[in-house]
Amino acid sequence: MPRDPRALRRALAAALLPLALTLLAAGCPGRLEDPDRFLDGGAFTCPDIVTEFFPKSCGGSICHEGAEAAAGLDLLAPGVVSRLVDKMGRDCPGILVDPVDPESSLLYEKLLPLPSCGSPMPIGKPTLTPDELACVRQWISAQTPTGGDEGEP
């Protein structure tokens, strides 16, 4: 080892440089899976209600899936929109999905912290954020009214 302090620092730096570069390269995140989500400042994007939201938030063996679905309401089987729009709820009064008045829809109301009937949904899963709730309201308002099938269960 050199006895000159400057030479000693250079030798130490030369020895540590490969280690430092290896550590920096190991910490590199690589490629982003979804770089577009960072371009808008990380703003929330609504999920597709039928294919993403319902399965994540409403599905499950004791929830709204299959022949034994809670309240007789299967939210995962094909044709869910036709089972919801302008249809009356079974266990709670109200139209399940009312595109004319989305906030009075039973589906929307049950997602609020204090619904007028029964327990708030989803049971056993995280409560919805204001953004998620706005997405559901937007989806309800985008549905086409059927023209008066309210009396059908």
Shape summary:
elongated
Total count of helical runs of at least 4 residues: 5
Mean pLDDT, all residues: 82
Topology pattern, helix = H, strand = E: HHHHH
Share in helix? 25-40%
Structural category is mainly alpha
> How many β-strand runs?
0
Keywords:
153 residues, elongated, signal, Cytochrome C Planctomycete-type domain-containing protein
Give a topology summary.
Elements: H1 5-26, H2 49-58, H3 80-84, H4 106-109, H5 130-142
Keywords: Signal
Protein name: Cytochrome C Planctomycete-type domain-containing protein
Describe, in plain words, how this protein is organized in 3D.
With 153 residues, the chain is an all-alpha fold. It has a domain at 79-142. Helices cover 35% and strands 0% of the residues. It is built from five helices and no strands. Residues 149-153 have low confidence and may be disordered.
Describe the structure concisely for a colleague:
The chain is mainly alpha-helical.
